[in-house]
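Hypothesis: this fold can be encoded by more than one sequence.
Test: take the structure tokens below, design a sequence, compare later.
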């Protein structure tokens, strides 16, 4: 059975890594901001789930999720 792919986006490295570690049954990619996440989504757009922080510099989580709908 193929593992589900999850993208974790958070500008706080501790939160980002804790989430990634806690999701060990999934194939997890991490991004430190919305722009980095968008790059990952454009090159590997087959994520099953995106978990994102809301308040991040340059692009908040809601803006990122709106972009996800268009990918």
């Amino acid at each position: 059975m193929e593992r589900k792919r999850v993208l974790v986006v958070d500008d706080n490295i501790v939160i980002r890594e804790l989430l990634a570690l806690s999701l060990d049954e999934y194939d997890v990619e991490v991004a430190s901001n919305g722009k980095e996440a968008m790059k990952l989504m454009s090159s590997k757009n087959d994520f099953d789930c995106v978990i994102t922080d809301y308040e991040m510099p340059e692009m908040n989580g809601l803006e990122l999720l709106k972009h996800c709908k268009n990918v």
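The CA atoms of residues 35 and 59 lie 7 Å apart. The helical segments are 13-22, 34-43, 61-70.
Hypothesis status: open.
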